[in-house]
Specification:
Helix content is 85%, strand content 0%. The chain has 192 residues and is mostly helical. Helix 4 (58-74) runs antiparallel to helix 5 (78-95).
C-alpha cells in the first residue's frame, strides 16, 4: 500500500495537480502514522497542509489539520494537537462535513481525556455521539460510548462505565465491527 501511494504521489507531483498531490501526501502520512513513523507522517501532513493553504482549499485544510493533529496527539504534543483540531473543527462546522466533524470531536475528547479534563472530554464525546446518531454511524457511536465509559471509569463511576462499555459492545457487535468489539470487551474486563 505504501508503494502504491508513493507512486501516486510521484505521478500527481509531476502533473501539477495540487489537490491530488495533497491527498496523496495525506494518505502517505496516515500510513506512516499507523506504522509509528511519526516524524515522516508529520512532514507529509505538513507538506499537504501547506499545499492546501496555498490554494485555499478549506475542506482540504480541515482534513490536513485533523490528520496532523492526530500525529501530534499520538506523540504527546497535546497543546499543538488541540490547536490543530480546534482549527479543523471551526472549518468543518462551516463546511458541514459531519463525518469528519465527528472524528475531530472525538480527537478533542481524547486530548482532553489524556489531560484529565474529563468534563471537557465528555462534552466532546457527547457531541460526537449526537452526530454519529444523526448520520447512522453505528461504529463511531460505539467508539464514543467506549470513550464515555473510560471517562466514567477514570472518575470512579464504575457502574456507569460498565453500562457504557456494554452498550458499546452491543452496538459494535450488531454492525460486526470486530476491533470495536474487542476494545469493548477489553474495557469490560478492566472493571473485573
Amino acid at each position: 500500500v505504501l508503494d502504491l501511494f508513493q507512486r501516486c504521489y510521484d505521478i500527481m507531483r509531476t502533473h501539477d495537480d495540487p489537490i491530488s498531490t495533497a491527498k496523496a501526501l495525506n494518505n502517505l502520512g496516515n500510513i506512516h502514522s499507523d506504522r509509528g513513523n511519526y516524524d515522516l507522517a508529520r512532514q507529509q501532513h505538513q507538506e499537504a497542509l501547506a499545499i492546501r493553504r496555498r490554494i485555499n482549499d478549506r475542506p482540504g485544510i480541515a482534513y490536513s489539520l485533523l490528520n496532523l493533529g492526530s500525529v501530534e496527539m499520538d506523540t504527546g504534543n497535546y497543546d499543538e494537537a488541540r490547536r490543530m483540531q480546534l482549527e479543523s473543527l471551526g472549518l468543518l462546522r462551516n463546511i458541514g462535513d459531519r463525518m469528519a466533524l465527528s472524528r475531530v470531536l472525538s480527537n478533542l475528547g481524547n486530548i482532553a481525556e489524556l489531560q484529565h479534563l474529563y468534563n471537557e472530554a465528555r462534552a466532546y464525546y457527547e457531541e460526537s455521539i449526537a452526530l454519529c446518531q444523526q448520520m447512522g454511524d453505528q461504529q463511531g457511536h460505539a467508539t464514543n460510548l467506549r470513550y464515555m465509559g473510560r471517562i466514567s471509569r477514570a472518575t470512579g463511576d464504575l457502574t456507569t462505565a460498565m453500562n457504557y462499555f456494554q452498550r458499546s459492545l452491543a452496538l459494535a457487535h450488531s454492525v460486526r465491527a470486530i476491533p470495536s468489539v474487542l476494545f469493548a470487551l477489553s474495557d469490560i474486563a478492566s472493571l473485573a
